[in-house]
Amino acid sequence: MQSIGRNQRILQGLQSRCSSSPNRRPDVLRRFLSVEELEPRVLLTAWYVSTAGDSTNPGTLAQPFGTIQAAANVAQPGDTVYIMGGTYHETVTPANSGTAGSPITYEPYNDQPVTIDGADPVTGWTSYQGKIYDAPQLSNLGEGNNQVFIDGKMVNEARFPNSPANVSTPTWAKATSVKVTLATSGLSTVTIYDSALTQPAGAWVGAVAHIAAGQEWVAQSGLITASAPGSITVSYYQETSYQVPKAGNRFYIVGNSVALDTSNEWYRDPGTGLLYLWDPTSDSPANHTIEAKARLYGFDLSNVSYVTVQGINLFACTVNTNAASTDDMLNRLTATYVSQSIGITADTLDPWGAEYHAHATGIILNGTGNILENSTIAYSSGDGVFLGGSGNTVENTTIHDVDYEGGDEAGVTTLGNDESVLYNTIYNTGRSGIVSRFTTHSLIAHNVVHDVGLQMTDLGAIYTWGTDGEGTEIAYNVCYNVHTGGYGAAGIYLDNGSQNWIVDHNVVYNADFALKMNPPDDNDLIINNTFSGTQYGLQSSGNEDMTGSTFLNNIFTAHAMFGPSATYNHDIFYQTNPQFVNAAAYNFQIKSNSPAINAGVVMPPYTNGYLGKAPDIGAYEYGQTPFAAGATAIATATTPTTPVVPVTPPAAPSPVPASAPSNSAKRNFNPQAYTAEWGLAASGSGMRFTNQWGWVEFQNVDFGAGVSQIVAQLSKIPAAGLQISIRLDGASAASVGMLVIPPTKSGSTALQTFTAALKGVSGVHNLYLVLATPPVGGELDGFTFA
After folding, report:
1. How far is CA 135 from CA 128, 274, 278, in A?
2. Helix (H) and strand (E) counts for the chain?
3. At residue 33, does pLDDT exceed 80?
4. How far does Cα 262 stand from its chain's mean position?
5. How many CB atoms lie within 10 A of CB 415?
6. Phi, psi of 585 (to 5 degrees)
7. Is 748's pLDDT higher than 70?
8. DSSP-assigned letters across all residues of 74-112
9. What are the φ and ψ backbone dihedral angles of 287, each rounded to 5 degrees?
């Protein structure tokens, strides 16, 4: 059974929200109920801490301790440790646990601003060379874990290529070509060629290369073993066959003094311990506050229970718990630069391996019944929050600018049972927003997730893979601004092997795919969602196996790719206008004349509380107040708390495998010079479709006054033939022509020319070639227009 205190707190919060959200189902509340009553807490002792105090003091208001740890050594159940305003450079490790009725509490005295700082000052600066200064850095967390701050802002570790200060949108170099030597076991080798690498031979040896390999699903690190002008050779771990390095892949280098060549950069010499710094304003560091990260944790709550930490700021550190930590409460925290880990570790060398064990970045909630709420978490190379163990909760928290290393972490990652991710706002992530793997009986609800996938591809605002959710529910979330190159990105992504998930009452818009379900995705229930994808409302791949999955009462504003074994009923598709209030302004409530009203099918408990004679189709019930989503306790101009009509989304990031084609439709197109693709592979001088419903995009094609015909050259035609649809400005847009390649007896390898008539094609458009019918295959070697 979950703890009394934890249940009481969650129940009160949900009851408060449900009072203003009538379509919040009672069954969601019941999962947190406990029949016992909360024991009254009796305040036994107050301890006081001040930066002006002393560890030999008795810890009274008149004679406070000088460190929080001094109070943590003596605090007993029911005690409160009052911390006076100031900055404390320490890791607090409580010696004792509280009890269910008498927790130990750490909080500011009279709401004074309190910061626990994981970094220590660096002083003693001398001029080294030009605008670079040096000073001894006594702390050393290891390559990739060190972090330097100037006046409270992170400075880049010296890197190639140089990058702006915004860690979420860094600058990467791009390989012009590669040479890969794959190993049957152990580490493989890749030589990356880039003419911008002008340094002499051997200059980069020993540095760390970060590579977004192959389809650029995830970034991984490797050791540079050789370098020459124009190239580096990297020892790395080969991930899946989709991630073999190739030309056009992005990379950057850190961990070498050669890279210290501009302002806003630092380098620490591991031999001498000297820190070299080029101030962002080219000023002397002595005129600023310079700090270097020295500790991982502000609070380490391992092995303690019933401890409350509230109202405290964390800088350059995080909070840790372990499997023995139960019913700890983190409330009203403001945590900035919580974790830094971009060196060569097991998880950066083999990023997908991180899904099989507890993570070590972000606010770490292992154990049972621990809660993080009403907080702000900002800047982490990995997770913003990690939920392991069982029965842990993150609620009403804003999480942003995390996973900037581009690994397999997220705003929130869950890896446990009975986890709760409720009423959070998550944005600016390198990969996914919420990742839930090997998680059962859990709830991901009322979150706003947007602007994710800023660095990687093939991901989701909410993502799961290889997991029998056993009824885990993804409900009442709003997801938007989800675009990547490669295979694209989804608002909600049930990747291969996601079974027994419930997806209900979500709103997804301005995403490549509103919902993606890769096979096998069996026995999932998709009910009462509004899916407004820019390419697909529902997308899949391969054999599209959705055995036992059911789709009810959903609105799809783009093509829905149902698997042959799926069941769907009472859904509205893109051919029917659902009559949204104002889709252009992202208000997806329905008007009084909507065909969705009373047109759904009843399925308790997911449709409980509907008005009229039947549930409405889509996420919003006409006549009811829209459900609330996102964090409300912490709000800024960039974290909208009213997701029904959110701010205009920013432009999507450029697709990763971009190779801008000429904008003239009169030239012969090279099929490999596309801007974005899905379900394709390079083949000889052309490309071939590898998945049903594959497509390729060429941006800003100028058709001038008009063209009337496409002329295409194909080879290696499959025996069953092909049909390729020509579309403008979207993979699911209306077809303006169809290339029909007839069947052959055994498949033709000879180059052949085929033509198709076009209608209404003029001006500048993004051109899409879409595989209209199976089978896959065939090599498209070139095409032009006439």
Report:
1. 9, 6, 12
2. 4, 62
3. no
4. 30
5. 22
6. -100, 15
7. no
8. T--TT-EEEE-SEEE-S-B--SS---SSS-EEEEEGGG-
9. -90, 5
